[in-house]
Amino acid sequence: MDNLLKPVLDALSGVAYFDDTQISECLIRRIPSKERRLLIKIWSVPTELLVRGLPSSPAPT
Is the pTM of this model over 0.85? Predict the structure, then answer.
């Protein structure tokens, strides 16, 4: 699957982000189909979360 992801990440570099170190999560699904299709969704993380870090979840009791 990484052979499918690498060209996409390279193409988006400089367009959707400055550097791939900014990517925090990727989900890749390969679904057999007669139709060739690529769907890309990009979300932005608010700057204040990048500076402070994500809130911690409470420890399970």
Answer: no
